[in-house]
Amino acid sequence: MSKFYNPERSYDLYDPQSKAPYKLSRYKIEQFISCPFCFYLDIRFGIAVPPLFPLTLNVAVDKLLKKEFDIYRARGLSHPAMKRFKIGAVPFQHPKINEWRNPKVGIRFHHQLTNFIIYGGVDDVWINPRNELIIVDYKATSKNSVLSIDADWQKIYKRQIEVYQWLFRQNGFKVSRIGYFVYCNARTDKEVFDAKLEFDIQIIPYEGDDSWVEGILLKIKKYLLEDKIPPSSENCDFCQYRQIVKKWVSQFKLKFKKAGLKDSGPGDVCAKLL
Hints:
There is one protein chain. By secondary structure, the protein is an alpha/beta fold. The chain is 40% helix and 17% strand. It has a five-stranded mixed sheet with strand order 2-5-6-7-8, with helices on both faces. It has a three-stranded mixed sheet with strand order 1-4-3. Helix 8 crosses helix 9 (266-273). It is globular. The relative contact order is 0.14.
């Protein structure tokens, strides 16, 4: 078994009979939106989908950006990129900034109606002259085309910022509707690599709307209280994989039966029929 994957987790499960608050991350909310079936198996039974392998280059860019913006945070000054894109703000100084950026702790709020503790690790927070907090998300990519956040799959990024906006508002902060994506685009037009990557930084504004968050939390609670697995999403790659494997294994078993062979498992089915 891969050290990155535990297919039968026995911890962090939701118990409908428990009165204790349940911690629900921003990531898990997105998982529910993507596929209620996979979400339910994960939260109720500990059967999680295989994780993506760590994107170490993206993690490195994220870490370096935080270090760089922290220099200007300590000085109370705007970062040069903020000035270049005419953003009237400075990195927000707060005793909990590192706690908010820690994905295992994050900014959190106890939602009484569901008894969920919602949390998530934000990349950065800025503040404008109106004392409004600005939620910021770092992204790293390498594209020759113009950067945007208009692709259908980038709705995930937008919901990410909106959940953070909601969390800060629930914690009593005044939050701007405008958030920003700090996009670092690795250049591939250099003559030589020379053991280093060069990035162009673009800051893309996004006007968030967190009005959907409350409703989705209530919907998640409803599903988790039921002893019935919800339907899968038509767009879920994991569910499509499960369904096609189930289909082909059934066909192999049928061929085995017709051939008069003993069924000793899908592996033998494949080996003897191919």
